[in-house]
Amino acid sequence: TDSIYAAGAKLVAWLLRYYRLPCDRSVIQGHSEASPKDDHPDCPTGAPGWAWDHYMSLIQAEYNALKVVT
């Protein structure tokens, strides 16, 4: 749902800023990408319906809105 995407994007953006990580798909991965050996049949991020482009645009917007942690 939109609320799941939005809440996840806020959390991920905050973590990226806090740990000074880049906001890109090399860092942001779904379960099946992070651990391809394991079977994650019920994980939404591995499902064809997960809108990665949409999710990444939400994360990028949240990331840009946050101040850099010093």
Descriptive notes:
The structure is a single chain. 11% of the residues are buried. The chain contains three helices and no strands. Helices cover 50% and strands 0% of the residues. With 70 residues, the chain is mainly α. It is globular and about 40 Å long. The protein starts with a helix and ends in a 5-residue tail after the last helix.
Short précis:
The chain is mainly α. It has three helices and no strands.
Mean pLDDT: 86
Structural class assignment: mainly alpha
| Form type | globular
Task: State the helicity in percent bands.
Answer: 40-55%
- C-alpha-based Rg, rounded: 13 Å
- Count of helical regions: 3
How far is the N terminus from the C terminus?
A: 33 Å
Q: Count of DSSP E strands? A: 0
List SSEs in N-to-C order.
Answer: HHH
Low-confidence stretches: none
Q: Please give the largest β-sheet.
A: none
Strand content: under 5%
